[in-house]
Amino acid sequence: MTLAPTSQSLPTMTNALTNALTDEMMPFMALIKTRAGLMFEGGGEHTLAMAVRRQHRDAGTATLAEYYSRLYCDAGEFKALVNLLTVNETYFFREPDQISLLTEHLLPRLLAERNTATPIRILSAGCSSGEEPYSLAMALQESYGESATRLFSLSGADIDGAMLAKARSGRYSAFSLRGAPDGIGTRYFDQRDKTHVLKDSIRRRVTFHEFNLLAAVAPPSLREFDIIFFRNVSIYFDAPTRLLIQHKLSAMMKPDSYLMIGTAETLANDFGVLQLVEEAQLYYFVKGKPPLAAEPKRKSEASPEVASPGSNTKSTTSVGLKPDLRKPAPTFDQLRELVRQKRFDEALAPLDSLLAANALTTEVLLLKGYICLHRQDYLAASELAQRALAVAEWSTDAFLLLGLSAKWRADVAEATRWFKQAVYASHECWPAHFYLAELCRASNEQAQAQRAYRVVWQMLTSEMTQARPPETGIKVIPLDLPASEVRFLCEHQLARLGDVRFSVGVADPR
Fold it and tell me: Which CATH superfamily is domain 96-324 in?
């Protein structure tokens, strides 16, 4: 598939359209950031615009300005828009190492130190549809049996009332259980048709609260927590908002309590509000004295050690380590290999360290975006790709990453646009051609699909005939798309689409 040249480059045209869209959405972005802290600059303008226009249409307002006035004054209307905008991708037992840290280290320590007549209070902040707090409830049941009901109190809080209603119902698809350990589905859920319904014994252990983290004061029910989980949420806020939220979370915590932030977010939230420590090769924050008398270090000394694969170290240390005791940081090529092997947790902290140091920025943004893509965090993947484009506006990797993010969100028009830009930037990018062919086939555009499959087949056949790896134009992301299998798929689809050259199973490479 070849794109006709234009007088203006596609990235330049895209930038102009994005700038115009940003100007139109600026009042909405400012209002939402002020009241909810959510950020949409740098790639999120399209998402915001679609939500605003949908709500504007449903509200029956004559103009966007009239809708903005209603949004500004009507708390219910504002809440409806925020519910539409919040990203609620989650699943059971996400980042299980942190849950193990809770049950094997943090809770035994707290139970030994505190009066067990008072339950240990745990909060899942930004709990979405409830998978995280219910995962904690199941993990506590596995570790402490029926005593868990007496020993622990679990709460979930989120700004999205619709998601909280889903959480209270306890009804989930099999997709939500994709990360759960073996046996969890049968022990804690009842199967009803294709729905997994959480057993009442677990569902009753979590209380849910509608709460905006930027609210001036937390209600009494959301104070005095021993442990707060705030994972995979802060990526949607800028640094000043994250700092403000951390102060508010700290105010909701007891002395000598713990704050758990997602492994990909921890270093970006080290503002000095709470003490960052390492235990069992994982990082978390402490309000008060670090456990096991770990000595606080000056922020200038803080540089996390990269755990070697397979290490079983269980010590608790402050993050700051003297340079001569630190293991060498992995190179970017080593990090890319970790990502290729899908060892994402090992790659994320070093990638965040490189971003903090402004090292290899474009490459690091793309590699981290690829990890977010595989974790179904499509908004974060798109944001990181857009940031990469701000530095390298012809990045084929960034175009492909944006296309894949849109494709996995089932946004066909957006995916098509980005894959076409990838082809425009690097005509040899056969993966982009292939994804375009797949989109055309799914949209019943058979002639376009046939042409695109033919292009991919010719590219791969030509390269394989010369016994060399097919060129892609992709420089950073380790795209897992085997050329030989794609070539076979193209032959299969071309035969199904009626291409006589493939209908008898013999392909003519000319």
Answer: Vaccinia Virus protein VP39 (3.40.50.150)
